[in-house]
Design brief:
Largest sheet: 6 strands, antiparallel, barrel
Strand order of the largest sheet: 1-2-5-4-3-12
Distance between the termini: 62 Å
Helix content: 10-25%
Shape: elongated
Order of helices and strands: HHHEEEEEEEEEEEEEEEEEEEHEEE
Number of strands: 22
Length: 382
Amino acid sequence: MELLPAAERNRRALAVGVVLALLGLQALWPEPWLERAAGRLAAPAARVLAPLSAWLSEPVEALVQPPPSPVASLASVEEGLGRPPRVPGTVWWPVPVLERRSSTWTLGAGRALGLFQGQPVVFGTTWLGRLESVSERNAVLRLWTSPDAPTGAWIGRVEGGVPAICLGRRQGGEPLVRQVHPAAEPADGDPVYWRRREGDPPWFERGQFRLGFLRRRGDEGRREGYWAVETALPVAAEGRVYIGLGAIPPDPPAERLPERAAARPALGADGVYGSRLVAIRAAAAVLPEPTALVGGGRVIGPVVTARGSLLWAAPLAPESWPGLAVALEETPFGLSTEPGILLRPGAPIFSRGDGRFPRGLWLGRIGEPAFAAAREMEVVGR
């Protein structure tokens, strides 16, 4: 039997079409095992082709630029802003925040630091809540604004003020003020301070930790008026809080930092995307989840993909950072997440911390250009 003149050509076209369709499906809905298999197959060739391509193109050393130094580390800024007032018999210890939820935060310290359930957690003069549960290396902070959480309060002033009970509300509403003395005459705008409960040391109230400000809400004409507390959580508290300890352990555990691996330039530009991607060769101990490339202390850009020890990063300007960011205000000194401040020319910004990127990476100042490489680089893990 003889084939038609175009049969062989049609068969090759059909085979190519099937292959392209499968590759398209893999691109849209990637299978991890196929990604790993492709990485193992392409790794030997990449080890040869990447250095050869870098040698044939312009020298990588010409792309190395000295990155600007950070104005300060975000951790030191948070500690300076959040240091509480002195309280007799109490040592305030800074603890990093690992994960934030609407009503509970996970903290990076536990029983190894001497923490226990019910300990107070503050930031500066702001009362945050108490430890709800403690494990060996972590603790869970329940914010005082969480639903149905009762908190004692003083309205007006700590000594001689009006005692009351504040109750957290659902859906992020302002906490309600309950059980105010009938003869009291609170006024809108009065400060609301934390009041100790039974079992708390009496000297804790000397810190005059604030809950917020008293506000009159509701419709008075329909007799639906009520008292609530207007709260404002400090932005710096999202990264670090203070816990009151009776004593510091003789060997306190070190703070856990994101994993890092040394890296060096492999190719200054990609064959398809040009300077929008750079190839980086990481150290032998490759991180399981590489997320960002750092050079000279500043973030060069996020890691977009990896094949073994070869990674590709996208150099970005600070204002193009794909994750959450926080700005450092120099006058007055503090942290802000306001959109206007985050886009202000010259504003120094850091990564705010989210599910993809760790908190505290120095991104640079708004308006600074992106740079492709630095002499000393590191790959940061999630």
